[in-house]
Amino acid sequence: MRTGMLALIAGLLSLRGLGELPPLGWLLPLLVVALMLLPYRLYWLGLFILGFCWSVLLAHGVLADRLDPALDGRTLWVEGQVSGLPERREGLLSFQLENATTRRASLPTTLRLSWRDAPEVRAGERWRLAVKLRRPVGMSNPQGFDYEAWLTAQGIGALGSVKAGQRLSAVPLAGWREQLRQSLLSHAATGREGAVAALVLGDDSGLSEADWQVLQATGTVHLLVISGQHVMLLAALVYALIAGLARLGWWPTGWPWLGLACLCAWLAALGYGVLAGLEVPVQRALVMLALILLWRWRFRQLRVWDGWLLAMLLVLLWQPLASLQAGFWLSFGAVGWLIWGLAGRLGGYSFWQLLWRPQWLLTLGLLPVLLVLGLPQSLSAPLANLLAVPWVSFVSVPLALLGTLCLPVPLLGEGLLWLAGASLHGLFWLLQVISGWIAPWYAPSVSGWAVLLALLGVACVSLPGGLPVRLPGALLCLPLLWPPTTLSPVGQAQVWLLDVGQGLAVLVRTREHALLYDAGPAVPGFDSGARIVLPSLRYLGVRQFDQLLLSHADRDHIGGAQALLDAFPVKKVVSGEPSQLPVSWGAQRCQTRQWRWDAVQFSQWQWAAGEGNSASCVLLIEAAGERLLLTGDMDSAAEQQWLKVHPGIRVDWLLAPHHGSRTSSSPAFVAATRPRHVLVARGRYNPFDHPHAEVLARYREAGAKVHDTAQQGAIRIELGAQRPALHWRQQGGFWQEK
């Protein structure tokens, strides 16, 4: 039985590693082969193929439900019903629209919409909306949150921005979670009402960016979103209540207390899961809880690993695309390591061992998982969880749930919710203090073999004391601490043009030095410096900068700088407009100068009379005879001045000035530089029509190949090696639009 479950799970999980989905025509022959294998000893291979085919079939269905490319960028009037809980952050409302229809075309089943300065929108309401639709495409970089994977796993077939709307009707019962959220936010008024809503409803929209940073730094994110721990806790409380009544003789004699205790505990957990939206960790917990209660009631032969495997199998059969979400791996990984480290041991654990051992097991066991997912490893997690887990489990959650149940009772429900909010306020204060003691560890990219060795190593270390394999297991984890570095040879430079949307961020690394040209944009609710540039730089192994060069002071070029200055030591900050930057950055004015790093030549230039875009600091890099010109937002006037200083010079790689704007890339500039390759940094749906069609035609007529971050994601160039550029989107999974 266990072999069959493992084979089926492996087939379902294999979807996660596919770069492209196999054609649907392949599935029928594969199914025939699988059915032929089932009666024989190779039945496990047949089950693997069945799991693979099922996951691929559903993935094809999700991709087929995406927005028609012909409707990409068009504005249509659509009608549909709001589902889930709308989220409002810094004036931007985000919500999902189900079963949307329009007169002109068929639409995906689920749309995710955003609405700036929107009116009140509640779950269950039907709206008629003017929406500019776009395909569900995110940014593609070496590291960072994979928005496209998340959209695919959620079954979202299109994104859209609302221009206008009209409420048509409301379905009261459909919006019961929204009504409950409003009650929680209005009654738990301690400044932590958003955290109370997160505990009760799984709605994290009330948590600020600073809250998330504290939770991530201390490894306690699982405590403020609905997880299996919360569901198990409520079930345990209900079971203990009925068992206690039976033990005291207060339970009706004609009622079988054990069976009813198991049933009521599971129903309470199910109710909590429905309240929280039945996310993957809750689904896993409900299945495992059902097996535990069945074991307690009748089936003592069930083993704990069987419950873990069955829970994973049922979740994947129901949602094969769940494996695209980090929460799936963290949830099942955490429970799996606890089972491995705690179950089946001879003798018992003391009270202190039961408190401390799970924390270090999770910290050690989840290390390889966090590295693969690109998430930070919290070194303070054991201490933080040792204090926070019992506090949330036995104080905050019971107060929040009891207060929610007692809301109809005047003053009682409000008082309990206020106490829940106060307990969370104290918890965040404590976590903030702990996060200041030990910073989280961000590891650079590691090879697959190093991760596999680490998994084997932590499995050995987690074994009982006295076994001789624990020390060798610890040694197997060492490659994670000293990952191999891929340094450019002397005389070459590695250049990364990151995909930051409508903005610019370029990393230039020689063998011993690193320079960042611009830092990406920042808008209310999204800082690309913190969300995109910083994770990518850490993944690439950057630890400090010799120079941060901010071409000029426009927000799309400097927005992410503060996050980077807070995270990295920076020896020098240079800008074309230093007076427009915060004084604390200590920016120096861009001056015409040249220098060499590791046999790579750098030439910096600025038009002294320029202002705004024309004041952009321009950087020319030459490695082994191959040239790259980074132009910022300089306009045609600045281009002419640059040509006067650099007559007759041609470049191999050219960053299109001002994102390919019509006011730049003048015919004289293109003819003089004669680039072989042109790099366009821009957002796919930017409102400025960048790059302009005339500009693209001009470059193509000159024989240049265009590389576009909006179409190809981040772009890597090995300057001086005379090699083709690498497009990061081509390295992505099947869910990324190629």
From TrEMBL:
Coiled coil: none annotated. The keyword Protein biosynthesis does not apply. The chain crosses the membrane at residues 43-64, 231-251, 257-282, 302-321, 360-379, 391-409, 416-440, 446-467. Pfam families: Competence, DUF4131, Lactamase_B. It is a multi-pass membrane protein. PANTHER family: DNA INTERNALIZATION/COMPETENCE PROTEIN COMEC/REC2, RECOMBINATION PROTEIN 2. This is Competence protein ComEC. It comes from Pseudomonas fluvialis. Residues 502-684 form the Metallo-beta-lactamase domain. The keyword Chloroplast does not apply. One of its GO terms (biological process) is establishment of competence for transformation. One of its GO terms (cellular component) is plasma membrane. It is found in: Cell membrane. SUPFAM superfamilies: Metallo-hydrolase/oxidoreductase. SMART domains: Lactamase_B (SM00849). Keywords: Cell membrane, Membrane, Transmembrane, Transmembrane helix. The lineage of its organism: Bacteria, Pseudomonadati, Pseudomonadota, Gammaproteobacteria, Pseudomonadales. NCBIfam families: ComEC_N-term, ComEC_Rec2.
